[in-house]
Amino acid sequence: MQHVEKLDSISYDQFIENYLKPGIPVVFKNASAAWKSNQQFNPDFFRANFGNHKTTYKGKEYSMNEILDITEKSTVDKPAPYPILFEIPLQLPELLPMIDPLHMNYAFPNWFRNKVMPYGKYGNSIHLFIGGPGNQYSLHKDMYHTNAWVTQLYGEKKFVVFPRDQEELLYPSNAGFISPINITKPDYEKYPRYREATPLSIVLKPGETIFIPNGIWHTTVAASHNISLIFDQLNGYNFKAWKQDMYDYAKRRGTMAAIAKYSLAQTLGSLCKLGEMTKAF
Fold first, then answer.
1. What are phi and psi of 113, to 5 degrees?
2. Cβ-proximal residues to 98 (8 Å cutoff; 6+ apart), any chain
3. Cα(31)–Cα(21) distance, rounded to whole angstroms?
4. What pLDDT, in 10s, does the model give residues 192-233?
5. Which of 107, 108, 161, 178 could disulfide-link to 218, CB 3.0 to 4.6 Å?
6. CB 213 within 8 A of CB 20
7. What is the DSSP string of 3-56?
């Protein structure tokens, strides 16, 4: 496998030209140092501050303490349930001031931070993921063509990404956003074209942040007990694709529903663009 580039530092303009516009993933070694808190976001921190906070996975409720216990004991042979996650603004809001500025001086403008954008809809999310050895995410590209930013808070996680021109080699299904291929044990007889794919891999270490551009297929494999913070980004660079997804997903309910959702997307985008111009968010 080839590797994703890791950067000690880069200007915002260089990031836009060299990575955002051409759609190339990249890892920032120290971007999260921009956060106001220099707290070590390890299991002890989450036990002490959020131990009794709860979330659900497949209909079952888990506390933060329970999740940390389960994932700490996870093995390749007996993996913990995954993905168990927290919606940070709704379930762990006290964490938000500690990770301000969320954009780390790179992930802006982000129209999802505009108050007109409903949280939890249309790709707008800020998640805390907790996992352990044996945990692997499905191979996918993010719905609504959002840009993804993942900061490793604790432990290590391997990311595998694919260049945009290789989508046809990944056998997209489920509206074109999920691949049935298990990258650790690919079935070449069933998916022969996957032999031609050239995945790029990188191990994300604590404090590092990976930028995954919209439309990029990717997956993760846990290298250890780990905690990650993930948020999505929308702005003028991916708005057109986001707006088209809004239409396409609604089209399953009929043309009128699709037109209505497209109109909503256009309105939200116009308001966000105005907010960007006036620095309202």
1. -85, -5
2. 35, 36, 37, 39
3. 19
4. 999 999 999 999 999 999 999 999 999 999 989 999 999 999
5. 161
6. yes
7. E--EES---HHHHIIIIITTT--EEESSGGGGSS-----SHHHHHHHHTT-EEE
Parallel, antiparallel or unpaired: strands 26-28 and 6-7: parallel
Q: What are phi and psi of 188, to 5 degrees?
A: -70, -25
The span from the CA of 120 to the CA of 107, in Å, is 19
The residue type found at 7 is L
Query: Residue written as tokens 């992930």?
Result: 107
In a domain, 9, yes or no: yes
What tens digit of pLDDT does each residue of 247-259 get?
Answer: 999 999 999 999 9
Cα 175 to chain centroid distance, Å, stands at 19
Give the pLDDT confidence of 25-74 residue by residue, as tens digits. Answer: 999 999 999 999 988 999 999 999 999 999 999 999 999 999 999 999 99
Residue 43 lies in a domain: yes
Q: What is the dihedral of CA 148, 64, 139, 234, to 10 degrees?
A: -20
Domain span at 215: 2-235
Q: pTM of the predicted model, to two decimals? A: 0.94
How far out from the chain centre does Cα 71 lie? 20
Instruction: Specify the CATH number for the domain of residue 78.
Output: 2.60.120.650
**Do 245 and 63 contact (CB within 8 A), yes or no?**
no
* Residue at 253 is within a domain: no
Place of tokens 């994300």: 204
Tokens of 86: 């927290």
Whether 250 is in a domain gets the answer: no
**Model confidence over 162-181: pLDDT tens digits?**
998 899 999 998 778 999 99
Tally the domains of the chain: 1
Q: What is the structure's pLDDT at 1? A: 43
Q: Mean pLDDT score of the chain, rounded to an integer?
A: 95
Cis (ω within 30 of 0) for the bond into 180? no
